[in-house]
Amino acid sequence: MIRRRNNDPVLIDFGTSKYGYIQSHTIISGKDIHPPELKMKGEARPSTDVYMWAATVMKIMKPYADDFSKYLESSTFKLIYPPCRLVDCRTLTRIDRRKFDDILIKCLDPDHSKRITSGHELLSMLKGISIPPVVHNYIIVNGRRIDLDPNKKYVIGREGSGANIEVVDPQKHISRKHAELWFDRRRGKWIVSDRHSTNGTLVIKSDGPHLVCSGNRGKPVSPPVYPVELDPGDKIVLAFKDKGGNMYDPYIEIPFY
What we know:
This protein is of the alpha+beta class. The protein has five helices and 13 strands.
């Protein structure tokens, strides 16, 4: 991968690794990004490409190094500092930067036996630290659409309770601070949880009801709470009667889209 002057990225297959020898006619990379086994012995393996990928990534990040070897100790070929101290990782907004730093360190280990072994393993690790894009969801409360801000945590409660989402409930079956909603950026999902309400919370999904909390029902000890991920089309149920056999009689339903 290289960076052109117009900032369009270009993906390149280094063509170095074929289990034990070099495909010399296909090498197009600069020698400054070659790992020690390629520089010193002319050997190449799948982890060689991993090293060269990481070195190239660091070269195209600010401050745009002309020679990657300036980031290395001359005698050991180890990085002189952690990668994100050498290059500016602050522009990486869709991944966990600390974990990305750790991955680059594992890619750039001068000892190939300690390195990430292959591009397949590297891709799996990068997918594991990626942050899914934010999806703009909304709920319908009291017949009104409420757009959900992923940067906020919402408390749902009875009208007049001071909760930031208030539900009209003249029967007062809903607790003053009944449930809460927040966006989990790791999973890219909104989560609903119960705030130890009296009459419980559940989520109705396409495959049936998912219990969040059965509610304390006026007892001094609250039952366990199991937060549930929300998908568009789900319904959040505030207060319900347990009819047995995974059957519930919902009181207030809040559609989630």
